[in-house]
Amino acid sequence: MDTPERNQIATPISKFEDSPVFNYINSLSPIKPVKSIRITQAFSSLTFASLPSIFTSPHVSSFHKESRFLRSHQDSDPSNTGTSCKDENKTPTAERDVSDAAQVAEIESEVQENFDILVPIGESSGEPLNEHQEFAIELPQSLKYDCGSPNCNPTPCGIAAACTVSKSDAPIVEKDFQIDLPDGKSHHERISQQKNDTGCGWESLASESTDLLIFSSPNDAAAFRGLMQRSPDVEVGCFASMVSNFPQNEVNDELKKQLLYQLTFDEQHEAEEPSCQPVDSSEQKDTNSLQNGLAISTLGDHTGTYSSVNMDNEVGALIPFANKPISDLPRGMRRRCLDFEMVGTHQKSLDGGSGGNSSSLLKSDENNIPKNKQLVVVKRGGDSTRCIVPGIGLHLNALTSSTKDSRIVKHESLLSDVQALNVHMSTTSLQSPLTSQELLHKSLTLSNAEDMDCDDNGLQVTEEASQAPADLIYEEHGQTSPRKKRRRMENGGESETCKRCNCKKSKCLKLYCECFAAGVYCIEPCACQGCFNKPIHEDTVLATRKQIESRNPLAFAPKVIRSSESASEFGDESSKTPASARHKRGCNCKKSSCLKKYCECYQGGVGCSINCRCEGCKNAFGTKEGSALRGPDCEEEEETEKCERNKAEKIPWKMENKNSDELNLASALPSTPSRFRRPLVQLAFPSKLKQPRSSFVTIGSSYTLPSSQKMGKPDLLLPPPPKFEKLPPTITEDEIPEILCSSSTPMASIKSASPNSKRVSPPHSDLGTSPNLRSGRRLILQSIPSFPSLTPQH
DNA sequence: GAGTTTGAAACT
DNA sequence: CAGTTTCAAACTC
């Protein structure tokens, strides 16, 4: 789609330049390096991205596609994998190549280390070729990123592409790529590709995942050009990918070195056109298809790589990202979430054998990697563990409210956050590799650190909000029963994250299923039986969804809406009581008096309204009678008072949370990643907002939990808060129509929303230090389709 | 952890 | 649209 890629990560280029590797390369190359300028770019690209549906499905389901890709790729190109290496070793020339490759590999690894890029080194510490192969997968992504980012200097990418294509003997498919030359000029380059092997790569990329080629069209690129600044990270990634490829490609050392050098600086606008030439000369035969094929699958992983760069080198690097408009980030991440979640989940299982599995894109070998560089092992396993996090916002928010208490986060929440991010990414072409990566990387890094805490579940989540919003460590060690997790979440207060259903008969294809209702795939932790709500059954899920929507278009729409103005401003909101939000359809409680979570209103943290048909309503957030008697205006006030009274007795936590949350949001969001996360949450919010259950939380909902809750110690005085102690996911009424009406395409939705400029933050706008949470959130709501669109996004 | 309660979702 | 059934979460013990 149109998603521009951004690299928000401020790459430590300077560091790179200072590194021995750099010097070495520099010495080899006639080109004189210019001191790189560190660019912090605000990520606005996301804003443009279309809102992806939670279900990555039709369009997205990058995961599936990726998987397919990998499979096909492998099948078609067996030589690319380990076999190729063996063959090379057998031949004399191969030896030389191998040695060269090894040398290059060394360099590469060093370079990468310098960049703190996560690399799949693990298995192949002794096998340069393998390592390279693994690296090779990055190339496609690099291309993607470069191409994707408007400002990004595509040269490297262009080169890479050219290389890939140049040697193909097979029939080729021509594609137009816009390449920005170092001199700043852009022109179209016709790149031919192999149709057979490569075809799967580029073509697939183009056709199947429009995401990958974000700016395949010049127009798009131009459109976004102003918005985004190319980030060094991207370049780095490209660079790394390129380098990795060389050995495989049997590129001669000189060329390799030169290329590396050029690539490195290309981004800095110092690259020279000649850089492409080496590529031409280089021989890329086998790797083309592989690289291309992997490209899609690796996206998620890549993200991680980039993030890692930021994370390791600079905590502050994340900031730029954080500053980006909320709407932007989440989206981008969504798509990737799927991949990432896998990463996080599988980390532990790396040893197990990701091995030949195409799924294992990134592997890190601790031995090979410097301490501070945590290897992220990404194992792309089957569909099993994908957790789409419904409530990223919550988690993130919770995380952001850094405190020791917050530190221990249920990894579930973290996962969910990450996943949610991934989901966004996956659904939208826009990806902010950093976000997902950051999370993962951070989590990984932290996991090593002493800070980690282990959950009952075995998931390890560590959060350091104080340091960086993105500092989240999550690791899944084991699984626990859904109930346990749920409990945890409740206790911890971050529980909204991942939904874990326990469906036995519905196959998770009905609204009974919380996961399905939330628009997320079931994940490993779910205890569901005969679950079809998995990426592998994407078609089924989508079809079912459509069917349900056909019956009830609002089936997946948020159930709780916030009264129009309330949300506009933090201050306002903080003063408002839950009553300002209402359950759209109302509840039908008869025995629970709307005082238990059986009641959707209560669960959602909102008062009952005239729409409710409840009997004996005693909703602590506002009774039906109360709302009926008073007008909306009075209602709020009265309810507020009422609520306060009630809360004091029954559910103080709610008010407290809300107020504090919002306040915190106002104060804390700016600095924390949560800002953008919130939007994500909403975006991610599936049509159905079961707040308590889903992790999706409306902005302000869960910013700060009482420390006790965070710690997992609910206030004793209070009744068990609804799952979302935070605010229930709510959306303003005026927003709802937009959301519902909003087309699946983000751009369109944005456009429609943007007229209400107050709410929408310009994509390019730099939130900077003072992000406007509201705007971000609003933007999300408006732009995001209530439910993941069933129709593929183009 | 098993069983019960509850109300939404689904079905008729 | 109303009544009934099914379902899974919420709750209780």
Automatic annotation (TrEMBL):
**Keywords for the protein's UniProt record, in alphabetical order:** Nucleus
Query: Which residue ranges have biased composition labelled Basic and acidic residues?
Result: 85-99
List, for all copies, the residue spans of the domain called CRC: 497-622
Q: According to its record, what are the GO cellular component terms? A: nucleus
SMART domains in the cross-refs:
CXC
**Family matches, as Pfam families:** TCR
The source's superkingdom equals Eukaryota
For this UniProt entry, what is the primary localization, expressed as one broad class?
nucleus
Indicate whether Plastid appears among the record's keywords: no
Q: Which compartments does it reside in?
A: Nucleus
Q: Where is the composition biased (Polar residues)?
A: 742-759, 783-794
Q: Which InterPro entries match?
A: CRC (IPR005172), Tesmin/TSO1-like_CXC (IPR033467), TSO1-like (IPR044522)
Region described as Disordered: 68-99, 472-498, 742-794
Q: Which GO terms describe its molecular function?
A: DNA-binding transcription factor activity
Q: Which protein family is named in the record?
A: Belongs to the lin-54 family.
Q: What is this protein called?
A: Protein tesmin/TSO1-like CXC 2
Question: Can you name the source organism?
Answer: Rhodamnia argentea
Q: What taxonomic ancestry is recorded?
A: Eukaryota, Viridiplantae, Streptophyta, Embryophyta, Tracheophyta
